[in-house]
Fold each of these.
Amino acid sequence: MPHEARGLQARQDASRTGEPGGGLAVAFWATLKRDLVLLLRRRSEVLNPLVFFALVITLFPIGISPDPELLATIAPGLLWVAALLAALLSLDSLFRGDYDDGSLEQLLLTPQPLPLLVLAKVAVHWLLTGLPLALMAPVLGILLSLPVGSYGVLALSLALGSASLSLVGAIGAALTVGLSRGGVLLSLLVLPLYIPVLIFGAGAVQAAILGDGASAHLAILGALLALALMLAPWAIAAALRISING
Amino acid sequence: MTLRLQARGLACERDDRWLFEDLDLDIRAGEIVRVEGPNGSGKTTLLKILSGQLADYQGELFWNDRPMRRVRQAFLESLLYLGHAPGVKAALTPLENLAWYQALAGRRGSEDARLAALEAVGLAGFEDVPAAQLSAGQQRRVALARLELTPRPLWVLDEPFTAIDRDGVAALEARLVAHARAGGCVLVTTHHELGASTLLRRIRLGGRHAA
């Protein structure tokens, strides 16, 4: 049936040329929108890390001492560690749902470049985990009597740092998505890679408190983010292929 | 249009057992190829290998007479794969699910086309119901609506008849034949007996290599 076969080919060509050059952008935005809608419909998953963060921080003054001076000295580290663990908590579900219902399989079979599509998924994770954590941190900083004037740096360092955390964590999540209980392994894989971000993130807040100027620390956080943005999407894509193709 | 999927000397081992060995395939436009065999005989594995998802095999694959590794992009642009899991997000409505799949194919598509595709698979009236509230058969139908929406010549369908009712099975069978007639190519596993058609070819797995 060569004549009809040509018909099918023509239909395919027509549909392909219908969206000139915009195929990748369409796929990227659609994935971003889909994941946002999905997470906003399961609000508990978005709220869990935030509640965890708030609970941990409220417990510290009770457990250690209500002395404002002592709390102020350890506040930068506490806030950063708690935020980091909260972000880690939410990582396991990043690809899990898609893996369970078969959408991940389909994602890997698209003609679009996989690194960019996973970047969309990671961006959603940061928008609904890292960014809210960063916005919430100054409020919890008041609780730990963090000195006024370091709130801006705290939020900014967390916003920058948590983006790197999401990107690096997604590599671990992709590697462990095929395992039924990958949570612990994920933490072990990812935590060592989180340490540089933690050092410079908490360092930035510390520097702001001491009045040293936090720009050097923030610049390094930015550099780490740039590096993660460049390399992580490819690593995530490769990790997903390893997990799925067994 | 040339459309030819070839495999030479395909062999796959799982847990010290050869699922198949020395398998030669030549699938061309206008054919419906049914992969048969008992449970655990490697049907899904074969489909995954042929759709380029598994790299853990021996032998060579060719798409349109060129090695698969080199023409993977062109191959993926011709392939529509429906796996064991329907790939339908429970929290999204059928319309939203289809919109994402269309976007993955690089097209924005139109709402009208999606509505028409859902109607074609018998889901009119369920467009805006979250897929979690649909039955297993209806969720499968959402996935099958992609056959209407995304024109791709090669269909690789793993158990597409699962949970589909009798009328739906007849309609899907007719759809497969129509696709093959139009110059497409269908590779399918099913335990359901497909009606005799001159286009139908069978590949039997299992039994021979029991070790």
Amino acid sequence: MTSLPARALRAGRLALAAGAAMFLATTVAQAQVAPPPGPTVEAIKKRGALNCGIDTGVPGFAFQDNKGVWHGIDIDYCRAIAAAVLGDPDKVKFTGTTAAARFTVLQAGEIDVLIRDSTLTFTRSTVLGLDEVAINFYAGQGFLVRKSIGVSKAADLQGATICVITGATLELNIADFARSTGAKIGTLLFDKPEEAIAAMEAGRCDGYTDDTGSLAGMRSTLKVPADWMVLPEAISKEPLGLHIRSGDARWQKIIFWLDNALKSAEEFGVTKANADQLKSSSKDPFILRLLGAEGDTGKALGLDEAWALRAIKVAGNYGEMYDTHFGPKALALPRGQNNLYTKGGLHYPLPIR
Amino acid sequence: MTSKGRALAWQAAAVVSATAVVLYFAHNVTTNLAVRGIQFGFGFLWAKAGFDIPFHLAEWDVNFSYGRALWVAGINTLFAAAICIALSSALGLTLALMRLSGNLLAAGTSRVLIELIRNTPQLLQIVFFYFAVLQALPQMRQSVTIGTSVFLNVRGLFLPAASGEAWDWISSATIGLVVLVAVLWKRMGMVVPRLLVLPPVLIIGLVAAGFTAQWDAPVLKGFNFVGGVRVPPEILALALGVSIYTSAFIAENVRASILGVHRGQTEAAYSLGLPPGRTMALVVLPQAMRLLIPPLTSQYLNIIKSTTLGAAIAYPEILQIFARTVLNQSGRAIEVMTLVLGVFLVINLLASAGMNAWNRRLTLQGR
């Protein structure tokens, strides 16, 4: 039998351990359920503007017109988020980021979300501590080559020299492709696309490589676009999308469902033009929930009921955005993988209910 | 407290507060890294690189490690720096002598060039030279051909490569011998100038070695010349851009140093009957060197750092290969930038130590 003081001591220890365990449990629980809308949105509301990281200039995704106004699908996404969170699509501060600096800028907290035709890779997810919340463009790495060199597919590029910009996954993809096919493709590395393109036009290299979406844009800026062609196949998978820092689950959910809302809108025929009207006239419960006429999707996200309606009214649904920037009247890039799943594409919006 | 004690106390306070600031920021970095779930370490240097380095003097293969990429890119940086230092020194001296020559045309030309060069941004000059070089060179199918196996086009200068055991032995032995003799020339009691004897010896040795070698000539195959050695246009543009820019500053340093030598020295040389050329070479320049070396050291250190501008025109040096490609692929921003800064610090400290040693030697030789 143990003495009384010893027992008291043990009981004390037990109580201490239990207390510590409870304390730990509550901290963990608090971390899991930070009240909506979460710290990032609180910060955005306090600031009165969304800090959105974008490309420094690539047609289709983000580029400035001669009045200094930004255009592109990434820009539309930034504005849609601002409309949903702050109620005003113009309350966005755009930060142009280079390929090399973009993730550091996001990690450091200078931007709330990075929408910059960026691919999520294993390294970026694990080592950099980032999450790719949604994919707004399915691309692949392709080649833009001079028509006169007579190449019809990437495997024919044996011995060719390709101009590449550094700071992306492009060089590694070329080396991987060359290793897997046994072709030897030389690369010439540039800091910025302008120099790479100019060197290519001067004949220093046989072609230029980038994501297929960007290539179509680049080709349109060449001196004689007709002399150049984009090779039909891609040598890699480049799911481009919206990146945030890991750690704010609430912010992640808002971005994730906003992307789903834009794509669902296309699936259910909700457009920029008819959204307001459908909110009052539609009989479809799914559309009514999406536009905030029924249910409480906004409350669950920590936003108001009309969050998705406002986002859709910025630049339309996903299909409308694509048409504006990549459609026949713009860069004429076929929708392909970027169509909805119902039309043979890869975009499969999750049900909002 | 004595004034010495007060000074000591102030110094101690300065050291303590500087240490505190450094520690505070180091602590911030570690905490922030931990909060964002980023690990810190240099283990990634042993990971496989997987990318190609388009121009390399040291051996390179896509299967080599990131650490090896730092070495290969470092050699490229040193190569570019060495070329630029030699070229800018020669150009700078020429410009300075032109300016001081008293010839109106030469002095005017030099003055206009110097003002034009040093008052425009360096990066712009490099990019300008790159595209000027690219535009000036012919397309690949219209290569300028020298003999049967030397080609010059927009992709670079293609030369035949020599290989074979006898070639390796004879060529390296000749070069080694010539360098050794050149260094020991005066100690060996030779009277004839070494520039008259040694270059022919070098050429004869290399030609003899060339007869024993197997020659791998570049051949146009598919998109590109295959085989041989290639000197890319990027190194040419970088060498021109950096050297011409720096030569303007070196020229002014040289001019200041020459004007800093007392006029009496020149007059004394003239009164002894030395002609102007020999007065400059034997009396003025050796004394000007003492004034020149400290500012020249700064210019050389600037050149080493300026080679990083090669990243803009596809010259694969440390900044481009390591601080761009490796940083992006590994995601190790802090480690990579620390390494790049460290490498430049070491290179520049060594260069400046060498220049300071030279400076001391010249000073001791004086009065």
